[in-house]
Structure formats: structure tokens, C-alpha cells
Known about the structure:
Shape: globular
Number of strands: 12
Oligomer: single chain
Bound molecules: biotin
Low-confidence stretches: none
CATH class of the largest domain: Alpha Beta
Strand order of the largest sheet: 1-2-3-7-6-5-4
Order of helices and strands: EEEHEEEEHHEEEEE
Amino acid sequence: MLGKPRIHVDECESTQLLLDPSMPEGAIATTRHQTGGRGRRGRTWHDTPGASLLFSVLLTPPAGRRAQELTLVGALAVAEVVDGQIKWPNDVLVAGRKVSGGMAELRDGAVVLGIGINVNQTEEQLPADARVPAASLRTTGRERDVDALLDEVLTALDALYATWRREGLAALHERIVARDALRGRDVTVGDVSGTAAGIAADGRLQVGEALLESGEVNVALH
Ligand code: BTN
């Protein structure tokens, strides 16, 4: 079961820095506050001390699996627990606003999967200038206890990760498709623009005729 051993500190730069590949698979790091929380593409992840769920987990995927798929597996775990939607490849939205982000960093053959969830922030405590408008579970009427939520997300992630290890991403495809926030939306990813046609069984996003491995999705406003 993911979650053991657990390193917990009151404050740190980033939980991504508290794990290393010498630890057992499933080790997690948690904190109440990050002074240098990391987002994808060099961005910063903001939190409100005590009101955010911030954790990293050490995973050692078998050879042959694409580690980057783990951001999608992590997003699916969060989306199923909070009843949200996945904005490919790593965000979880509730009512069209971002409540969670995840990132997978490679370390000597291991992966440190970091997940942040805005749990009990008030509207005023959320970043007003976020690229994807932010919400918390509280502002969307889903206020939660942070520790209980961690347990639920770890339980969900544990089961999804076991399936992914054993059978690959295709075994989770139906569940991913059911949570896809982008299908049918007009999007731009890098220099590709078109209608998002869905997430393929191998985790790529189809936009028009193009199948994209990674990227940052901008959704057209109508
Ligand atoms: C993103 O949306 O760009 C990814 C955000 C990932 C944030 C989490 S919070 C726990 C872990 N520690 C970090 O510094 N980042 C991840």
C-alpha cells in the first residue's frame, strides 16, 4: 500500500525534494506548507498553510511503462475521489476550475509523483492570476478534512497504480475517458489548434488529426 513510510514536516521547500530512490516504493512526503512549491513547466504551486493537501509519492515503475503516464493516473485518482474532471494531462477541475495539479519527476529510474489539491482555501486565499482559474474543494461545496482526503487519494492511487503496473494505461482508459474535461472543446496545444477528440488508450490527446504526447492545453473561450 502506498503511504509507507511517511515523512511529514510542517514546512519545506517542496515535498518533491524529500524523497529519493533509495527509499522503498510507496514512501510519501507530506507537509502543511511549501516555500517553493513546484508546478509543471517551471511554474510555482501556491498553497495556504494547512488548507492544501500537498504530497509526493515515490514509485518505481517496471521497465517498458512510460513514467509520464503517471500524471494521468494521479489525475484520475484525484478526479474519482473529488468527483472532478481531468484537464489532460495533469489537472483536475471541479465546475470548470482547477482544484488539483500533479507532476511526475524522474529520479534514477524512479518517479516522484507530486500532487497538490486546494482543499479548504477561501476564495480570497486562491491565486487570482492563475493560468487556469483556481478553486478549492471548499469553494465548490466539497469542504474536506485534509488528512482524510490524503487517505482516500492514496487508496485510489494505490489501486489505479497496481492496475497500471500490471496491465498498462489502456486498462484505465474507460475511466479516464469518463472524466475527460476537454473532449469536444476547441483547444490550442503549442502550434496545434482544433477540437479535442478525446484521450487515446495510450494517454495521448487527440486534437483534430494530431495525437499529442505532452503539452499545455489552452481552451478557447466562447
Ligand atoms: C501543476 O499543476 O503544474 C503541478 C502542481 C504539482 C504540485 C504538487 S504539491 C506537492 C508536490 N510538491 C511540489 O513542489 N509540487 C507537487
